[in-house]
Write a structure and sequence with these properties.
Layout (H helix, E strand, L loop, with lengths): L1 H9 L3 H19 L5 H17 L6 H14 L6 H18 L5 H4 L1 H7 L9 H17 L10 H17 L3 H18 L5 H17 L3 H20 L1
Length: 235
C-alpha cells in the first residue's frame, strides 16, 4: 500500500497515476481497515482516467472508451457534478474524434453508454442532442453512395437505438417513420443483392414490425419473403 501511494503521487503519466490510485482505492479497506480518502485518491483517479485519453496517451479506441466510461461511472460516487460533466464531455469529444461515418461501432457509444445506462436522462439537453445525431446518421446512411452503395449493416447501427428509443417512449409516429425509411433502404438494396440476402433483411424488418404491433405490415412482408423463396433456392 505504501508503495502504491508513493507511485501514485510520484509518477507523471496519467495512466500510471490512475492505475496506482485505483489500487489504493480498492485495497485500502481490505489492507488497512479504513476507507480511502476520496479527495486524495478517488477524485485524482477519475481525473487521471480522463487525462489519459484527453492527453493522447491511449492508442486503442476500445481502451479509451472503457477508461472514460469508468470515469463516468465513478464520478457520481464522489457527489462531484463538475467531475461527472468533465467525464461526459471528454467521452463526447473522443467519440466525435474517432467516430467517422464508416465506423458505426464507435459513433453510437453516447447512446449505448450515456442514455441506456441513464447517465444522461430525458431532462438533460444532451439527451435530445444524442438522438438528433443518431437521426442524422440514419438519414445519411440510408442514402446510397457511388463507392459503397447502401450498407444495411451500418444503417441498422443507427436504426436500432432509434427504434428502441421511440418504442420505449411510445412515439408511434416516429416509429413508423423510421420503419418506412428502413423498408425503402431494404427494397433499394434488394435490387442488387441475392434473394437470400433480401430475405435476411426483410425478415429483420418483419421482426421490428411485429415488435411494434404492426401486424398487417408484418403479414405483407411475410408474403414477400415467401415469394422470394423459389429464387433463393435456385441461386
Amino acid at each position: 500500500m505504501n508503495y502504491w501511494e508513493t507511485r501514485k503521487d510520484g509518477c507523471q503519466n496519467p495512466i500510471s497515476k490512475a492505475r496506482y490510485s485505483v489500487l489504493v482505492w480498492e485495497f485500502s479497506m481490505r489492507v488497512r481497515g479504513i476507507s480511502p480518502n476520496y479527495l486524495t485518491v478517488g477524485i485524482p483517479y477519475v481525473e487521471n482516467l480522463i487525462m489519459s485519453v484527453t492527453k493522447g496517451k491511449i492508442s486503442s479506441s476500445q481502451s479509451a472508451f472503457r477508461k472514460l466510461e469508468r470515469a463516468i461511472v465513478m464520478s457520481p460516487k464522489f457527489k462531484n457534478n463538475i467531475l461527472k460533466e468533465q467525464a461526459i464531455k471528454a467521452f463526447r469529444t473522443y467519440e466525435k474524434k474517432v467516430g467517422a461515418i464508416g465506423k458505426p461501432g464507435l459513433w453510437r457509444r453516447s447512446y449505448d453508454i450515456l442514455i441506456k445506462k441513464e447517465f444522461v436522462t430525458h431532462a438533460d439537453s444532451l439527451f435530445q442532442i444524442i438522438i438528433n445525431e443518431l437521426e442524422e446518421r440514419f438519414s445519411i446512411l440510408t442514402q446510397p453512395t457511388e463507392t459503397d452503395g447502401l450498407r444495411l449493416s451500418d444503417v441498422e447501427v443507427a436504426f436500432e437505438p432509434l427504434f428502441e428509443h421511440y418504442l420505449k417512449i411510445k412515439d408511434d409516429q416516429n416509429l413508423i417513420r423510421i420503419l418506412n425509411v428502413l423498408e425503402s433502404a431494404d427494397r433499394f438494396k434488394m435490387k442488387s443483392c441475392s434473394a437470400m440476402e433480401g430475405i435476411h433483411w426483410l425478415e429483420k424488418l418483419r421482426d421490428y414490425e411485429i415488435i411494434s404491433g404492426l401486424k398487417e405490415d408484418a403479414e405483407k412482408l411475410a408474403t414477400d419473403i415467401k415469394n422470394l423463396g423459389p429464387t433463393a433456392i435456385k441461386e
